[in-house]
Amino acid sequence: xxIGLEKYRHYYETLTESELFRHVTHNSLNQLLEISxxxxxxxxxxxxxxxHTLYTFHILITGKIKVYxxxxxxxxxxxxxxxxxxxxxxxxxxxxxxxxKVYYEALEDSEVLCIQVPLMKEWMKENPLVHKSFLSxxxxxxxxxxxxxxxxALEDIPTRLARLLYNNMxxxxxxxxSICGLSHKELGALIGTTRAVVNRHIQNFKEEGILEVxxxxxxxxxxxxxxxxxxxxxxxx
Amino acid sequence: xxIGLEKYRHYYETLTESELFRHVTHNSLNQLLEISxxxxxxxxxxxxxxxHTLYTFHILITGKIKVYxxxxxxxxxxxxxxxxxxxxxxxxxxxxxxxxKVYYEALEDSEVLCIQVPLMKEWMKENPLVHKSFLSxxxxxxxxxxxxxxxxALEDIPTRLARLLYNNMxxxxxxxxSICGLSHKELGALIGTTRAVVNRHIQNFKEEGILEVxxxxxxxxxxxxxxxxxxxxxxxx
DNA sequence: CCCTCAAAGCTACCTAGGTAGCATTTATAA
DNA sequence: TTATAAATGCTACCTAGGTAGCTTTGAGGG
Lengths: 237, 237
Fold this sequence. Notes:
Chain A is an alpha+beta fold. Chain A has helices at 5-17, 26-34, 50-53, 91-94, 117-126, 130-154, 157-167, 184-191, 195-207, 223-232, and strands at residues 37-41, 46-47, 56-62, 65-71, 76-83, 88-89, 103-106, 110-116, 169-170, 175-176, 211-213, 218-220. In chain A, a hairpin with a 4-residue loop joins strand 11 and strand 12 (218-220).
């Protein structure tokens, strides 16, 4: 990597804070940075080509990246993950698990470290302890996926939407962190439905006094009512 | 472990064939068996108590075990995984990822090795290479989950059912392996719907000449028609 | 400043799939 | 054997959510 010293420090310190590289020596961390290429992905950059997804491993330094699947038959997106600081992708290609087809899009300006898969494999071989961290990380992600699938398969859309809002709300400030500023279409992709349906239920929530909408921003006005949405389940049947 | 020599050999050889323990020394594998307790879970045994799920790690030697979530509000099951020989569970508890609530049920008589989580952690610490195998294994499972969620969120039930049948059919013999003998209710749990709906579509498939039904057994009569079900998607809209 | 386009709001329609209920068949056990 | 329970097949009903199409709003760029 050939960059300014300040940038380098910035990357270095971010990696230090990551649980993935916590037990890696300073020396090894520097070696990792040596084989990395830093890239800036501006907002709305869409990464589609396989050189990125199949042969490159990525570390997200700052920003927000959406991992999604595209279904051509009904023209719909499904967001599998929202990656934040210190997330890594794509472990699938790292493990030679080649058949999964996902796309990436930067939802905010993002700094990304790119590492060729063979180089990364080499580095991991010399730092075998990271396998443990990666395992822990992957299991956590799998837990997220597991809950996701249970939601999509067993819960109706008002419940899923309420859960999405609730989970992403900072309980004290009632502000949103990760899903702040997303369009209804993006919200739909996050819970497995379309923008029209999301909009419909947001209007319902508004009427019920759960939230208020003001240009590109959803504000929860009654957190208790929101929470009730999660618990009521389908008892109306 | 205190068992007959033959059983011991049987377990040992099964583990040797597992990709999870491929690079483990004979000595370590014996140590693993030493801290294991062998159990036989008869068909339809349902494991619910947390001593099994939360504090014990399991290796499935022979048999078939269903990992499922139960939703009390609408009284429905969702099968997340069908575990076969040499599968392991539950990695979540091993990684201290305590919040996932799943149940286990033996669909066939199963031989299981049970290992206390602290002992397993100790053993893994002395055999750090297994973290790599476990990582690879977990990533593969995650890939399965990822495809599952895409199916459930974006595809209709005829497609999901057709895919389930197709994936679990031995293409040459047209026999089923893993889902053979499952009830419509079980099939529903595998694709995220109810038995009534599964039955409805099986009747449709029958009328279309895709399959035949004879007491607890589904036989595909036209594999091409079945495959078309997968590809036609929702073009009828 | 206006122009453009995406996002949001809303109406109307339709169908896949969830539900309820029952009758029939098959399996398991007493 | 009979009895009990489970699995299957089938009917009828209903509603959540997908779709189409349009208007309104507002943000960002020239």
